[in-house]
Amino acid sequence: MDRRAHEIDHRIVGDDMQCVEITLDPQETVLAEAGAFMMMDEGIEMKTIFGDGNGQEQSFMSKLWGAGKRVLTGESLFMTTYTNVSSMRRTVWFAAAYPGKIIPLDLRDFGQRLICQKDSFLCAAKGVSIGIAFQKKIGTGLFGGEGFIMQKLEGDGQVYVHAGGTTVQKELQPGETLRVDTGCLVAMTSNVDYDIQFVGGIKNTLFGGEGLFFVTLRGPGHVWLQSLPFSRLANNIIAAAPRAGGGRREEGSILGGLGGLLDGDN
Question: Is 15 exposed, middle or buried (0-12, 13-18, 19+ CB in 10 A)?
Fold first, then answer.
């Protein structure tokens, strides 16, 4: 069956800090989130679009609804398209903002729909719709932390998502359950049932260090997980950053002071 989305080719470059080279035939288009662009050949035309990016003719209200769904996920109202307006094949490159792996996925292999973490989507072929995956359970909507709002990728095109650190894949059997830190979930097939659950117990709540909530995934379906969520990376950087006065933030009351003395900070 022919695709409705543009058929783009790709090459992933790098190991822990990957980028993806997208090769476009004349008049082919790829769409991406702001901040993912790296470089492009002459003959590629950039354009800012309003809506969910599926490339189909839409009314203004449909575009407004698509854009509004993206705002709910914390993303911009706008996306950027890159179209090859030349008569020869041209390339455009995209890169993730932190260490990890870029995962190429063909939506035709997953029932033309995937659910992904709002920070994991990188780029996709024109014709893929990027919206919000509504969660009916109110516990998820109110208390899900970084993972409670997910993006929905729909269509029959190629999409590219980014996973921080090491990527782990799990195939869940019917009824099989997996409990995951909310930030470690990258993507899942649409048939996976998910909900956010509270981590009970006062010790877990106050001293657990893993947050108050985790996501429960129930099969059947396929899930992609990441070992280094961006939020965890950012929190560790902030915790290790120097204080405003110029002194460093100590890692321990005794060893930290000793380390500062040995480093010549004291």
Answer: exposed
**Residue 52, SS3?**
coil
Q: How many CB atoms lie within 10 A of CB 192?
A: 19
Amino acid in position 179: R
The predicted model scores a pTM of 0.77
- Cβ-contact 122, 162 below 8 angstroms: yes
Distance, in Å, from the CA atom of 192 to the CA atom of 176, rounded to the nearest integer, reads: 10
d(CA 25, CA 16): 29
Question: What CA–CA distance (Å, rounded) separates 194 from 190?
Answer: 10
Q: Could you identify the residue written with the tokens 């014709």?
A: 127
On the 0-12 / 13-18 / 19+ scale of CB atoms within 10 A, 129 is buried
Distance CA 55, CA 170 (A): 32
- Positions in the chain short of pLDDT 50: 55-61, 63-76, 136, 138, 140-147, 249-255, 257-263, 266
Tell me: the pLDDT tens digits for 135-164?
545 454 444 444 457 888 999 999 999 999
Alpha-carbon distances, residue 99 vs 33, 151, 172, 181, 212 (angstroms): 18, 21, 27, 19, 26
CATH of 9-240, one of 3.60.160.10, 1.10.3720.10, 3.40.50.720, 3.90.79.10: 3.60.160.10
